[in-house]
Amino acid sequence: MNTGGFALTGLSVRPAQVWGAIRLVPLVRDEPIAGLRLDRRVYEAGDPSIVDIGDGTTYSSFIPHAFVASWGQGADPAAAFGTQLQDRPATPRRAKLQTSGRAIRRLARRIAPGRLRFLPMHLAMEGYLALHFGGPETAWEEWTDSAVRHGLSPRVEESYSGAWVRGLADSLRVFEIHPGQCGVALYVADTLASVFVVPHPADYRALHATLLEDMYGEVLFHYTTYVADVPDFTAAIDADRVSSFADLRRQAAVQKDDWARFHDGSMATGLLGEDAYTYERVYRLGEFTLSRMLPSFRLHEENHIGELISTADGQIAYCKTFRLSAPQIRRGHLLSRLHAHNWDLLATAKALGTDPTQLAHRIEAAGFTGLLRHHVVTQPTRPGRPQ
Q: What pTM value is reported for the model?
Protein backbone atom coordinates (compact mmCIF):
# COMPACT_ATOMS: atom_id res chain seq x y z
CA MET A 1 0.00 0.00 0.00
CA ASN A 2 1.00 3.62 -0.48
CA THR A 3 -0.52 7.03 0.14
CA GLY A 4 -0.83 10.15 -1.94
CA GLY A 5 -3.18 12.59 -3.62
CA PHE A 6 -5.54 12.11 -6.54
CA ALA A 7 -5.42 14.06 -9.80
CA LEU A 8 -7.13 13.75 -13.17
CA THR A 9 -3.78 13.48 -14.90
CA GLY A 10 -4.00 13.44 -18.68
CA LEU A 11 -7.58 14.77 -18.74
CA SER A 12 -9.00 18.25 -19.26
CA VAL A 13 -12.51 19.49 -18.46
CA ARG A 14 -15.00 20.97 -20.92
CA PRO A 15 -18.01 23.20 -20.19
CA ALA A 16 -20.67 21.50 -18.09
CA GLN A 17 -24.11 20.52 -19.30
CA VAL A 18 -27.11 20.85 -16.98
CA TRP A 19 -30.44 19.04 -16.81
CA GLY A 20 -32.49 19.83 -13.71
CA ALA A 21 -30.34 18.95 -10.70
CA ILE A 22 -27.85 16.95 -12.81
CA ARG A 23 -24.60 18.51 -14.03
CA LEU A 24 -22.24 16.51 -16.24
CA VAL A 25 -18.71 17.82 -16.75
CA PRO A 26 -17.00 16.17 -19.77
CA LEU A 27 -13.42 14.93 -19.32
CA VAL A 28 -11.43 14.91 -22.57
CA ARG A 29 -8.07 13.47 -23.61
CA ASP A 30 -5.80 14.91 -26.28
CA GLU A 31 -4.77 11.34 -27.14
CA PRO A 32 -6.31 8.00 -26.06
CA ILE A 33 -4.37 5.75 -23.71
CA ALA A 34 -2.39 3.38 -25.90
CA GLY A 35 -2.54 -0.34 -25.22
CA LEU A 36 -5.68 -0.56 -23.07
CA ARG A 37 -9.38 -0.91 -23.96
CA LEU A 38 -12.49 -1.42 -21.88
CA ASP A 39 -15.73 -3.23 -22.71
CA ARG A 40 -18.86 -4.39 -20.92
CA ARG A 41 -20.18 -7.83 -20.04
CA VAL A 42 -23.91 -7.82 -19.27
CA TYR A 43 -25.41 -10.07 -16.62
CA GLU A 44 -28.98 -11.31 -16.50
CA ALA A 45 -31.33 -9.51 -14.14
CA GLY A 46 -32.25 -11.44 -11.02
CA ASP A 47 -31.35 -11.88 -7.39
CA PRO A 48 -28.22 -10.29 -5.94
CA SER A 49 -24.97 -12.05 -6.83
CA ILE A 50 -22.58 -13.27 -4.16
CA VAL A 51 -18.97 -12.32 -4.77
CA ASP A 52 -15.90 -14.16 -3.52
CA ILE A 53 -13.26 -11.62 -2.52
CA GLY A 54 -10.56 -14.30 -2.49
CA ASP A 55 -9.58 -14.53 1.19
CA GLY A 56 -12.53 -16.59 2.38
CA THR A 57 -14.74 -13.49 2.67
CA THR A 58 -17.77 -12.95 0.45
CA TYR A 59 -20.38 -10.27 -0.09
CA SER A 60 -23.72 -10.04 -1.89
CA SER A 61 -24.91 -7.25 -4.18
CA PHE A 62 -26.93 -6.62 -7.32
CA ILE A 63 -24.47 -6.65 -10.25
CA PRO A 64 -25.85 -5.45 -13.62
CA HIS A 65 -22.59 -5.81 -15.55
CA ALA A 66 -18.85 -6.29 -15.42
CA PHE A 67 -16.05 -4.55 -17.27
CA VAL A 68 -13.39 -6.39 -19.23
CA ALA A 69 -10.03 -4.68 -19.63
CA SER A 70 -7.92 -5.73 -22.63
CA TRP A 71 -4.26 -4.77 -22.81
CA GLY A 72 -1.14 -5.56 -24.75
CA GLN A 73 -0.44 -5.79 -28.46
CA GLY A 74 -3.48 -5.03 -30.58
CA ALA A 75 -5.57 -3.66 -27.72
CA ASP A 76 -5.45 -0.02 -28.79
CA PRO A 77 -7.01 -0.04 -32.27
CA ALA A 78 -9.66 -2.65 -31.44
CA ALA A 79 -13.32 -1.79 -31.03
CA ALA A 80 -14.92 -2.17 -27.62
CA PHE A 81 -15.19 -5.95 -27.76
CA GLY A 82 -18.34 -7.65 -26.54
CA THR A 83 -20.36 -4.53 -25.72
CA GLN A 84 -24.06 -4.99 -26.45
CA LEU A 85 -26.98 -2.60 -26.72
CA GLN A 86 -29.96 -4.20 -25.00
CA ASP A 87 -32.76 -3.46 -22.59
CA ARG A 88 -31.47 -2.34 -19.22
CA PRO A 89 -32.03 -5.06 -16.61
CA ALA A 90 -34.54 -4.35 -13.89
CA THR A 91 -32.41 -2.69 -11.21
CA PRO A 92 -33.60 -2.45 -7.61
CA ARG A 93 -33.84 1.05 -6.17
CA ARG A 94 -31.50 0.17 -3.35
CA ALA A 95 -28.85 -2.52 -3.16
CA LYS A 96 -27.40 -3.85 0.07
CA LEU A 97 -23.76 -4.84 0.06
CA GLN A 98 -22.52 -7.08 2.83
CA THR A 99 -19.67 -9.43 3.64
CA SER A 100 -21.44 -12.77 4.00
CA GLY A 101 -23.01 -15.53 1.90
CA ARG A 102 -22.14 -18.25 -0.67
CA ALA A 103 -19.41 -17.31 -3.16
CA ILE A 104 -19.96 -17.71 -6.91
CA ARG A 105 -17.45 -15.32 -8.51
CA ARG A 106 -14.42 -13.16 -7.77
CA LEU A 107 -14.09 -9.38 -7.97
CA ALA A 108 -11.29 -9.46 -10.56
CA ARG A 109 -10.45 -12.52 -12.63
CA ARG A 110 -8.23 -13.06 -15.65
CA ILE A 111 -10.41 -14.65 -18.35
CA ALA A 112 -7.84 -14.87 -21.14
CA PRO A 113 -4.28 -13.71 -21.85
CA GLY A 114 -4.37 -9.93 -21.79
CA ARG A 115 -8.00 -9.77 -20.59
CA LEU A 116 -9.24 -9.12 -17.04
CA ARG A 117 -12.89 -9.13 -15.98
CA PHE A 118 -13.73 -7.02 -12.91
CA LEU A 119 -16.84 -5.62 -11.26
CA PRO A 120 -16.95 -1.83 -11.63
CA MET A 121 -17.11 0.12 -8.36
CA HIS A 122 -17.22 -3.14 -6.39
CA LEU A 123 -13.44 -3.15 -6.04
CA ALA A 124 -13.68 0.19 -4.26
CA MET A 125 -16.70 -0.76 -2.16
CA GLU A 126 -15.09 -4.04 -1.14
CA GLY A 127 -12.11 -2.05 0.13
CA TYR A 128 -14.47 -0.01 2.29
CA LEU A 129 -16.48 -3.02 3.50
CA ALA A 130 -13.29 -4.88 4.40
CA LEU A 131 -11.85 -1.89 6.30
CA HIS A 132 -10.38 -3.45 9.47
CA PHE A 133 -12.98 -6.21 8.99
CA GLY A 134 -11.08 -8.62 11.22
CA GLY A 135 -11.94 -6.60 14.32
CA PRO A 136 -9.87 -6.50 17.53
CA GLU A 137 -6.46 -8.12 17.28
CA THR A 138 -6.14 -8.13 21.06
CA ALA A 139 -8.86 -9.68 23.23
CA TRP A 140 -9.54 -6.58 25.32
CA GLU A 141 -12.19 -7.24 27.95
CA GLU A 142 -14.58 -4.62 26.49
CA TRP A 143 -15.13 -6.57 23.26
CA THR A 144 -17.51 -9.53 23.00
CA ASP A 145 -16.28 -13.00 22.08
CA SER A 146 -18.06 -12.61 18.73
CA ALA A 147 -16.15 -9.41 17.96
CA VAL A 148 -12.81 -11.10 18.71
CA ARG A 149 -13.58 -14.34 16.86
CA HIS A 150 -15.58 -13.09 13.89
CA GLY A 151 -14.68 -9.41 13.59
CA LEU A 152 -17.27 -7.19 11.92
CA SER A 153 -19.10 -9.96 10.07
CA PRO A 154 -21.47 -9.15 8.54
CA ARG A 155 -20.80 -5.61 7.27
CA VAL A 156 -23.75 -4.06 5.45
CA GLU A 157 -23.96 -0.85 3.41
CA GLU A 158 -26.69 0.49 1.14
CA SER A 159 -26.44 2.32 -2.17
CA TYR A 160 -28.92 3.65 -4.71
CA SER A 161 -29.09 2.72 -8.37
CA GLY A 162 -28.58 5.55 -10.85
CA ALA A 163 -31.87 4.53 -12.47
CA TRP A 164 -33.61 6.00 -9.41
CA VAL A 165 -31.74 9.34 -9.44
CA ARG A 166 -34.28 11.75 -10.89
CA GLY A 167 -33.17 13.33 -14.15
CA LEU A 168 -30.10 11.15 -14.67
CA ALA A 169 -31.64 9.00 -17.42
CA ASP A 170 -32.81 12.07 -19.35
CA SER A 171 -29.47 13.84 -18.96
CA LEU A 172 -27.52 10.84 -20.28
CA ARG A 173 -29.89 10.61 -23.24
CA VAL A 174 -29.79 14.26 -24.35
CA PHE A 175 -26.33 15.50 -23.37
CA GLU A 176 -23.71 15.92 -26.05
CA ILE A 177 -20.64 13.67 -26.02
CA HIS A 178 -17.59 15.77 -26.91
CA PRO A 179 -14.92 14.74 -29.43
CA GLY A 180 -12.17 13.00 -27.48
CA GLN A 181 -14.37 12.59 -24.39
CA CYS A 182 -13.09 9.76 -22.21
CA GLY A 183 -14.91 10.47 -18.99
CA VAL A 184 -17.33 12.56 -16.99
CA ALA A 185 -17.67 14.13 -13.56
CA LEU A 186 -21.26 13.66 -12.41
CA TYR A 187 -22.77 16.23 -10.04
CA VAL A 188 -26.15 15.95 -8.32
CA ALA A 189 -27.37 19.30 -6.95
CA ASP A 190 -23.76 20.45 -7.50
CA THR A 191 -22.47 17.75 -5.16
CA LEU A 192 -19.88 15.50 -6.77
CA ALA A 193 -21.42 12.04 -7.02
CA SER A 194 -18.86 10.20 -9.15
CA VAL A 195 -16.03 10.48 -11.62
CA PHE A 196 -15.94 7.95 -14.45
CA VAL A 197 -12.95 7.67 -16.82
CA VAL A 198 -12.06 5.18 -19.58
CA PRO A 199 -8.98 4.90 -21.84
CA HIS A 200 -10.53 5.57 -25.26
CA PRO A 201 -13.36 7.79 -26.64
CA ALA A 202 -14.99 4.77 -28.32
CA ASP A 203 -15.07 3.01 -24.94
CA TYR A 204 -16.79 6.00 -23.38
CA ARG A 205 -19.45 6.16 -26.09
CA ALA A 206 -20.17 2.47 -25.55
CA LEU A 207 -20.21 2.75 -21.74
CA HIS A 208 -21.80 6.20 -21.31
CA ALA A 209 -25.22 4.73 -20.45
CA THR A 210 -23.78 2.45 -17.75
CA LEU A 211 -23.79 5.47 -15.42
CA LEU A 212 -27.49 4.71 -15.05
CA GLU A 213 -26.65 1.33 -13.52
CA ASP A 214 -23.92 2.55 -11.19
CA MET A 215 -24.47 2.88 -7.45
CA TYR A 216 -24.63 6.22 -5.67
CA GLY A 217 -24.90 7.38 -2.08
CA GLU A 218 -28.20 7.98 -0.32
CA VAL A 219 -27.71 11.72 0.05
CA LEU A 220 -27.41 12.15 -3.73
CA PHE A 221 -30.66 10.28 -4.32
CA HIS A 222 -32.46 12.65 -1.94
CA TYR A 223 -30.81 15.78 -3.36
CA THR A 224 -32.68 15.33 -6.64
CA THR A 225 -35.92 15.19 -4.67
CA TYR A 226 -35.38 18.54 -2.95
CA VAL A 227 -33.39 20.45 -5.58
CA ALA A 228 -35.24 21.02 -8.84
CA ASP A 229 -32.60 22.88 -10.85
CA VAL A 230 -29.00 24.06 -10.62
CA PRO A 231 -27.74 27.17 -12.44
CA ASP A 232 -25.87 26.85 -15.69
CA PHE A 233 -22.50 28.53 -16.13
CA THR A 234 -22.31 30.71 -19.22
CA ALA A 235 -19.29 32.30 -20.86
CA ALA A 236 -18.99 36.07 -20.44
CA ILE A 237 -16.84 37.52 -23.21
CA ASP A 238 -16.08 41.24 -23.21
CA ALA A 239 -17.13 42.46 -26.66
CA ASP A 240 -14.84 45.49 -26.38
CA ARG A 241 -11.84 43.13 -26.44
CA VAL A 242 -12.92 41.35 -29.59
CA SER A 243 -12.21 42.84 -33.00
CA SER A 244 -11.20 39.72 -34.93
CA PHE A 245 -11.63 35.95 -34.97
CA ALA A 246 -8.22 35.65 -33.33
CA ASP A 247 -9.42 37.84 -30.44
CA LEU A 248 -12.55 35.72 -30.14
CA ARG A 249 -10.49 32.52 -29.98
CA ARG A 250 -8.28 34.01 -27.28
CA GLN A 251 -11.28 35.10 -25.21
CA ALA A 252 -12.87 31.67 -25.61
CA ALA A 253 -9.61 30.04 -24.46
CA VAL A 254 -9.57 32.29 -21.39
CA GLN A 255 -13.14 31.28 -20.54
CA LYS A 256 -12.26 27.60 -20.95
CA ASP A 257 -9.21 27.93 -18.69
CA ASP A 258 -11.23 29.88 -16.08
CA TRP A 259 -13.89 27.17 -16.05
CA ALA A 260 -11.28 24.42 -15.66
CA ARG A 261 -9.66 26.23 -12.72
CA PHE A 262 -13.04 26.82 -11.09
CA HIS A 263 -14.04 23.18 -11.52
CA ASP A 264 -10.80 21.70 -10.15
CA GLY A 265 -10.33 24.34 -7.46
CA SER A 266 -13.91 24.63 -6.21
CA MET A 267 -16.40 22.06 -7.45
CA ALA A 268 -14.14 18.99 -7.31
CA THR A 269 -11.94 20.05 -4.42
CA GLY A 270 -13.50 17.45 -2.10
CA LEU A 271 -12.07 14.73 -4.34
CA LEU A 272 -8.96 16.42 -5.71
CA GLY A 273 -8.06 18.27 -2.50
CA GLU A 274 -7.52 15.12 -0.43
CA ASP A 275 -3.76 14.47 -0.18
CA ALA A 276 -3.78 11.29 1.92
CA TYR A 277 -5.58 8.58 -0.04
CA THR A 278 -4.45 5.03 0.68
CA TYR A 279 -3.86 3.01 -2.49
CA GLU A 280 -3.87 -0.78 -2.62
CA ARG A 281 -2.74 -2.58 -5.75
CA VAL A 282 -5.22 -5.24 -6.87
CA TYR A 283 -3.85 -6.49 -10.20
CA ARG A 284 -1.10 -5.86 -12.73
CA LEU A 285 -2.26 -5.53 -16.35
CA GLY A 286 1.05 -5.50 -18.19
CA GLU A 287 2.31 -1.93 -17.86
CA PHE A 288 -0.93 -0.84 -16.14
CA THR A 289 -1.95 -1.17 -12.48
CA LEU A 290 -5.46 -1.73 -11.13
CA SER A 291 -5.81 -0.24 -7.64
CA ARG A 292 -8.43 0.78 -5.11
CA MET A 293 -8.25 3.89 -2.96
CA LEU A 294 -9.60 4.87 0.45
CA PRO A 295 -9.71 8.39 1.93
CA SER A 296 -8.41 9.51 5.31
CA PHE A 297 -12.03 9.75 6.60
CA ARG A 298 -12.15 13.44 7.45
CA LEU A 299 -15.26 14.20 9.49
CA HIS A 300 -17.68 16.87 8.20
CA GLU A 301 -15.99 16.90 4.77
CA GLU A 302 -16.38 15.13 1.45
CA ASN A 303 -14.86 11.66 1.35
CA HIS A 304 -14.63 9.51 -1.79
CA ILE A 305 -13.61 5.92 -2.35
CA GLY A 306 -12.57 4.73 -5.78
CA GLU A 307 -10.81 2.34 -8.09
CA LEU A 308 -8.48 3.13 -10.95
CA ILE A 309 -6.21 1.74 -13.62
CA SER A 310 -3.11 3.89 -13.99
CA THR A 311 -0.24 3.98 -16.46
CA ALA A 312 3.42 3.72 -15.52
CA ASP A 313 3.75 7.53 -15.74
CA GLY A 314 0.74 8.18 -13.49
CA GLN A 315 -1.99 8.89 -16.02
CA ILE A 316 -5.49 7.65 -15.16
CA ALA A 317 -6.65 5.18 -17.79
CA TYR A 318 -9.78 4.06 -15.92
CA CYS A 319 -11.46 5.43 -12.82
CA LYS A 320 -14.70 5.24 -10.86
CA THR A 321 -15.32 7.09 -7.60
CA PHE A 322 -18.14 6.99 -5.03
CA ARG A 323 -18.98 9.69 -2.50
CA LEU A 324 -19.50 8.28 0.99
CA SER A 325 -22.42 9.43 3.12
CA ALA A 326 -21.89 11.07 6.52
CA PRO A 327 -22.70 7.81 8.42
CA GLN A 328 -20.28 5.89 6.18
CA ILE A 329 -17.58 8.47 6.89
CA ARG A 330 -18.19 8.17 10.63
CA ARG A 331 -17.93 4.39 10.42
CA GLY A 332 -14.67 4.61 8.49
CA HIS A 333 -13.30 7.21 10.92
CA LEU A 334 -14.14 5.11 13.98
CA LEU A 335 -12.68 1.92 12.53
CA SER A 336 -9.50 3.74 11.50
CA ARG A 337 -9.08 5.29 14.95
CA LEU A 338 -9.72 1.98 16.71
CA HIS A 339 -7.25 0.19 14.45
CA ALA A 340 -4.62 2.92 14.96
CA HIS A 341 -4.84 2.32 18.74
CA ASN A 342 -4.93 -1.50 18.54
CA TRP A 343 -8.66 -1.51 19.38
CA ASP A 344 -7.87 -0.31 22.90
CA LEU A 345 -11.05 1.51 23.91
CA LEU A 346 -9.34 3.65 26.56
CA ALA A 347 -6.53 4.78 24.26
CA THR A 348 -8.93 5.47 21.39
CA ALA A 349 -11.29 7.46 23.61
CA LYS A 350 -8.39 9.56 24.90
CA ALA A 351 -7.19 10.26 21.34
CA LEU A 352 -10.71 11.35 20.34
CA GLY A 353 -11.09 13.56 23.40
CA THR A 354 -13.89 11.57 24.98
CA ASP A 355 -14.40 8.75 27.50
CA PRO A 356 -14.97 5.01 26.90
CA THR A 357 -18.69 5.20 27.65
CA GLN A 358 -19.29 7.96 25.11
CA LEU A 359 -17.09 6.18 22.60
CA ALA A 360 -19.18 3.04 23.11
CA HIS A 361 -22.31 5.07 22.29
CA ARG A 362 -20.64 6.35 19.12
CA ILE A 363 -19.67 2.81 18.09
CA GLU A 364 -23.26 1.60 18.48
CA ALA A 365 -24.68 4.71 16.78
CA ALA A 366 -22.40 3.93 13.82
CA GLY A 367 -24.14 0.57 13.44
CA PHE A 368 -21.64 -1.74 15.15
CA THR A 369 -24.06 -3.19 17.68
CA GLY A 370 -23.23 -6.34 19.59
CA LEU A 371 -19.47 -5.75 19.62
CA LEU A 372 -19.12 -4.32 23.13
CA ARG A 373 -19.74 -5.61 26.65
CA HIS A 374 -21.52 -2.65 28.19
CA HIS A 375 -21.17 -3.83 31.77
CA VAL A 376 -17.38 -3.77 31.27
CA VAL A 377 -17.27 -0.44 29.42
CA THR A 378 -19.25 1.32 32.16
CA GLN A 379 -17.08 0.05 35.01
CA PRO A 380 -15.53 3.05 36.81
CA THR A 381 -12.22 1.19 37.19
CA ARG A 382 -10.79 -1.74 35.32
CA PRO A 383 -8.07 -3.78 37.04
CA GLY A 384 -4.87 -4.11 35.12
CA ARG A 385 -5.74 -1.36 32.59
CA PRO A 386 -4.18 2.12 32.62
CA GLN A 387 -6.61 4.92 33.50
A: 0.83
